[in-house]
Amino acid sequence: MVETPAYDLTIFKVHYGKMTLKIYSKGERVLRIEVIVHSTREYRWSRSLPAFLEIVVRLKCILERFLDALGCINACFVSDETLEQLPQAAQIGQTKVGGIDLNKPRMRRVAEAVLTLSAVPAGFTASDLARHVNALSGATESEYGPRHVAYDIKKLRAKEMVRKIGKSRRYEPVPEGLRSLTALLILRHKIIRPLLAACAQPEPPAQPANPIPMHHHYESLRAGMRNLFTELGIAA
To answer: Do residues 122 and 137 touch, judged by C-beta distance below 8 A?
Structure first.
């Protein structure tokens, strides 16, 4: 959730059960990040005073995990090796699994669901992933269920983008994998598709009333890509 309850104040919240992760700024000078537990009973934590220090340590770990996820998404990166190796088959244990093809809608939805779940305090389960993927696609559990989720998670683990948390049945994205998935999705949704759509138009798209620097960058890229396509003999 993003809230603007007062002038010059923006609050960004992630709600998870009886817990809230919160970031807010004021006047572009103050940035505060905190985690709030509304009920320790919900998580079966001791509520006695001697347990207060243990609760604070747990909350500190949750906050650091949240900040790590934000940092990976904000400063995303993908290497040439990842682009080359991602579609290739891989091995996890004794099992050989297929590569990751983000041109396929199912795998794109899985990647988007992993980004959504990256800030979950205790990692996510296969059921969590299936629920988010089905919410994105409108599919039912019979169309995308436990068997499909298990195979997709294996592919992500084989590419070292997701790892198991200890001996539990919960998973978390690896920082490098989170950066790569974010970069690949941004390249596809925010750069390649809009530029191809704009290059295919005979006339430049209408300029926004209040352009921002990003609009000027897009226009420069659009013009440059049209010239590049002409040189390469590609019809956008």
So the answer is: no
